[in-house]
Structures are given as structure tokens and as C-alpha cells.
Design a protein that fits this description.
The protein is of the alpha/beta class and 335 residues long. The strands form 3 sheets. Strands 1, 2, 3, 4, 5, 6 and 7 form a 7-stranded mixed β-sheet that branches. A 6-stranded parallel β-sheet has the order 11-10-8-12-13-15, with helices on one face. It has a two-stranded antiparallel ribbon with strand order 9-14. Helix content is 32%, strand content 19%.
């Protein structure tokens, strides 16, 4: 999937840079990898890959045989000439990226987002959240997830969605709702409780609600939310027409985010507005890393648990993607 021309002048006469963005197609991984690539500022080609058996069942550290490990029928083309740089995200991309690096004779630079679960030195650069507890000369530690929310995009979105959203009364409250995942449950009863809190909040503040759900919300919970959260001074995106997500971020005075999504929380923090996180019901021990993530944000004073009220004032936006992008550009210029 081509974002733009896959080559660009890097400043050295006659030299062109080819860049691939490689993920397994999962929305969160795509958002992070694409966000970093956009911040680097060079054109790139996106490559979504699916792993073949037995690689799909194996940790990357156990890929001892030399194979790209991909299911070619379910993947974008992965073949030479190999790129100068790969930005990857998600554990399923790790083995393939490292094999490309080997086949390129080490010429392909590799940048991975999240813990790759292999020897860190095998990548040229790693961007990992603090709760992954990674360290090393090639590791950039972030509090949030990488994304493409920045001042320019928010300014544009504010203009695009002005006619629809400026009519809502202040404070304008953006509500970003995820749902059931491998780590958290989200039932109709949970949706009922959240809807009640939001309606009480609207009555107490006199503000407007801007609400978006996701595929993870589920049909039952999603239907309840749409039924309860309707009427005057509520903008609920039902999935029809253009997505106002960036508009909600741009126009929000406060943001409320369910705790199942690192990306939505990080994108909310990129606005510089107060962010309140909705506690979710963990499934076993699967939510441990998410809980560590939220704890680190609370300790840094960046988020507050949502208790039905709004607190906090504007603060500097959390935009760590550019910090990582600067390291990538520095690496490119050294070659």
C-alpha cells in the first residue's frame, strides 16, 4: 500500500532513500508505525504482512532458520530490492524484519516500536514505552504510544469540523470508547454505567458531549450507548459518513478515554487538554502491562481516573513521536 513515492533525496547528491513501514495490520500497530513514519517526513511504502506456519506460533527469538516467514497469499509483496529503512511495530513483524536486514547484508536500517522480545542490539533503534522496562543505547523510552496527532493536524481538523462542533456548549467533552479486548471486558452493564455517568456529567456541567465508539465496543453495548447518549448537545458518531475523531480531539476541552487503548489515551494526551481514563474490568492477568501504562501516566500527572467529574487544566501536549523521529533522521544522516 503506497503512501507516496517510495524514494526521496536525502541530501547526498544522487542518493535516494527507500522506506518500508511494516506491521501485521492491527489498527494500533499501524497507527504507531505510520505516525512515526509521517513524523520522519520521508515518503514510505506500507507493507502489511501475515505470518505462515510455523512462524505464526513461534516467538521471534526462535526463528533460527533463515526464512521471511510470511504467508505470501495474505501479505503485501516482500522482495528485493530491500529498503534502506524499515519502521516496524508489533511482535509479528520482528522475525521478517530481521531476516530482511540479514539478507541486505546489514544495509537495511531497522527501527522497531514496542518490545521486540529479542536481543535489542539486533535493531538499530527501538522506541518502547516505559512500562516495557527496556534500556540500552539504541532504546528511546516514551510514556505514551507513538501517533500522528500534532498541532498542524489538530488546527486543520478544528477548521474542518467547525460548523458541526462549535455549536456544542462548553465545556466540550470528547469521549473515546473502546471495548472488549484480550485484556479487558466490556459488557452491556459496563456500557450502561458509563452512559449514566456521562449523562450526569452533562447535566452537571451544561457541556456538550462528542462521543465515538469502536469495533471493540460490540453490537450490544454500542446499541445501548447510542440509545442512551442521544439528543441535544450530544454528537455521537455512528460510523456513517466522515469520521470526526480528529475533530473531537481538536475541539475538546476535556477528554474521557476507556483504559483499553494505549493509542487513544496517547492521542488524547497529544491535545494538551485534561485526560480522564475510565477503569476497565481486567481479564485475568492480561491487563498487567496496560495497568502499568496507566499508572505511569497518573504518576506523571498526565491523566486522572474518571470518577464522573472533570478536573484539571490545559498542559503541554505529550508529543513524543517527534523525539523518536529526530533520532531516526539522525541515524539516516549518518549513513
Amino acid at each position: 500500500m503506497e503512501n507516496a513515492s517510495d524514494t526521496i533525496e536525502t541530501g547526498t547528491a544522487g542518493q535516494e532513500m527507500t522506506i518500508w513501514v511494516m506491521t501485521d495490520g492491527r489498527a494500533g500497530n499501524v497507527v504507531s508505525a505510520r505516525g512515526l513514519a509521517d513524523a520522519v517526513g520521508l515518503p514510505y511504502v506500507e507493507k502489511v504482512i501475515a505470518l505462515a506456519r510455523p512462524h505464526v506460533w513461534m516467538p521471534p527469538a526462535l526463528w533460527v532458520f533463515r526464512s521471511l516467514g510470511i504467508d505470501r497469499s495474505g501479505s503485501d509483496p516482500v522482495e528485493p530490492p530491500w529498503p534502506d529503512l524499515i519502521i516496524s511495530c508489533g511482535r509479528r513483524a520482528v522475525g521478517t524484519v530481521l531476516e530482511i536486514k540479514r539478507r541486505s547484508g546489514g544495509r537495511t536500517h531497522t527501527v522497531h516500536i514496542q518490545d521486540p522480545h529479542v536481543d535489542l542490539s539486533r535493531f538499530d533503534l527501538i522506541a518502547a514505552p516505559a512500562h516495557d522496562n527496556l534500556s540500552g543505547p539504541n532504546v528511546v523510552t516514551t510514556l505514551g504510544g507513538l501517533n500522528s496527532v500534532n498541532g498542524a493536524r489538530l488546527s486543520t481538523a478544528r477548521d474542518v469540523w467547525r460548523d458541526r462542533l462549535q455549536v456544542l456548549p462548553e465545556p466540550r467533552i470528547a469521549v473515546l470508547i473502546g471495548g472488549r479486548s484480550r485484556a479487558y471486558d466490556f459488557t452491556r452493564a459496563d456500557a450502561e454505567m458509563l452512559a449514566g455517568q456521562l449523562l450526569d456529567l452533562q447535566r452537571a456541567t451544561g457541556g456538550g458531549l462528542m462521543i465515538t465508539a469502536s469495533r471493540r465496543t460490540g453490537a450490544d453495548a454500542g446499541e445501548l450507548l447510542r440509545e442512551r447518549l442521544s439528543g441535544a448537545d450530544i454528537d455521537f458518531w455512528d460510523g456513517q459518513g466522515d469520521n470526526p475523531y480528529l475533530g473531537y480531539l481538536a475541539w475538546a476541552d476535556h477528554l474521557i478515554v476507556t483504559g483499553d487503548s494505549v493509542n487513544m489515551t496517547s492521542e488524547a494526551l497529544a491535545t494538551g487538554r485534561p485526560v480522564h481514563t475510565v477503569a476497565m474490568r481486567p481479564i485475568g492477568n492480561r491487563a498487567k502491562k496496560f495497568e502499568c501504562f496507566h499508572e505511569s501516566l497518573r504518576k506523571a500527572g498526565l491523566t486522572r481516573p474518571f470518577d464522573g467529574t472533570l478536573t484539571g487544566t490545559a498542559r503541554p501536549p505529550l508529543r513524543e513521536t517527534e523525539t523518536v523521529a529526530a533520532r531516526v533522521r539522525e541515524m539516516i544522516l549518518r549513513t
